[in-house]
């Protein structure tokens, strides 16, 4: 089975993890992508945000949430009163998955499979163990399935505080939609307000 497990160092902090992740070959996604996009933020962050996978801009720049979805997320965090400096941001899958409609044309995002998400899971587990956040915000279905299993449905639990044991540690999680889904929504303002209102639940839970 595909797995990142043999590439994940047992010791060391986030910088050691990030260095090792750059050479991960745990699944085929590293072949077409430019680079590994590891999480960003301080190990002392109280809040961890988990997205799906890097997009086109993230793949080029090597940083999570620096493209259009990231800008929207930053605005939503600010409106919800969450401090980006107190946030660790990462993705369930660390390599960009895409197709091209035609050779040398624009790269189109493709959702990772459950196999790929599962393969990349040891990196997310290692980030959780280093950061030990007080609260996790799940941005969309892929992040939810990665941490809570394949039966996760974002519409059923968004904007609520879940308490679940993950890798042997009790965690509090607030699921919400993925910021990219807000960009695609017909009622973009309404979808944005929904995201902000879920993030306010997270802000309240953090205290
Ligand atoms: N979408 C994500 O899920 N993560 C990113 O880093 C960028 C876009
Ligand atoms: Fe490794 Fe994850 Fe990249 Fe697959 S997607 S190669 S498991 S870092």
UniProtKB/TrEMBL annotation:
<dbReference type="InterPro" id="IPR005273">
    <property type="entry name" value="Ura-DNA_glyco_family4"/>
</dbReference>
<comment type="similarity">
    <text>Belongs to the uracil-DNA glycosylase (UDG) superfamily. Type 4 (UDGa) family.</text>
</comment>
<dbReference type="InterPro" id="IPR036895">
    <property type="entry name" value="Uracil-DNA_glycosylase-like_sf"/>
</dbReference>
<keyword id="KW-0378">Hydrolase</keyword>
<feature type="domain" description="Uracil-DNA glycosylase-like">
    <location>
        <begin position="38"/>
        <end position="200"/>
    </location>
</feature>
<keyword id="KW-0479">Metal-binding</keyword>
<keyword id="KW-0411">Iron-sulfur</keyword>
<keyword id="KW-0234">DNA repair</keyword>
<keyword id="KW-0408">Iron</keyword>
<dbReference type="Pfam" id="PF03167">
    <property type="entry name" value="UDG"/>
</dbReference>
<protein>
    <recommendedName>
        <fullName>Type-4 uracil-DNA glycosylase</fullName>
    </recommendedName>
</protein>
<keyword id="KW-0004">4Fe-4S</keyword>
<keyword id="KW-0227">DNA damage</keyword>
<dbReference type="InterPro" id="IPR005122">
    <property type="entry name" value="Uracil-DNA_glycosylase-like"/>
</dbReference>
<dbReference type="InterPro" id="IPR051536">
    <property type="entry name" value="UDG_Type-4/5"/>
</dbReference>
